[in-house]
Amino acid sequence: TQSRGDDASSSYIAADREFNAKEIAKAAMGGYSVLDVPIATPNRFSCVLGPPDGSNLICVDIITIGRKSESLSDEKFACSEVVRQIVSPARRNNPNGAPVPPLSVKEIETISVYTK
Q1: How far is the C-alpha of 58 from the C-alpha of 92, rounded, in Å?
Q2: pTM for this structure?
Q3: Which of 2, 22, 43, 100 is a plausible cystine mate for 64, CB 3.0–4.6 Å?
């Protein structure tokens, strides 16, 4: 996992979603699985993946729908993030064609506890 802040004196820390998502995809599907990352912002990440078996390309969209943090003590704090993950067939030949139903839609909550 990788994170980034505004600068060395910043109290702002955010997960580097693009780096982390690419590394997870590479670990699960192989080093050349991430074919394109058209959107990578703190609140939305989208990528096109090529499964190693050469089957159809898939598009994965991760959209942040909520964040929260809570102080547990002077030294510890917890952060929570809820995202919606949508996995769909990639539309190679006709991006303006009729909508394609998603293969999978999930809401995922990640909770992390940090020590200052």
Answers
A1: 10
A2: 0.73
A3: 43
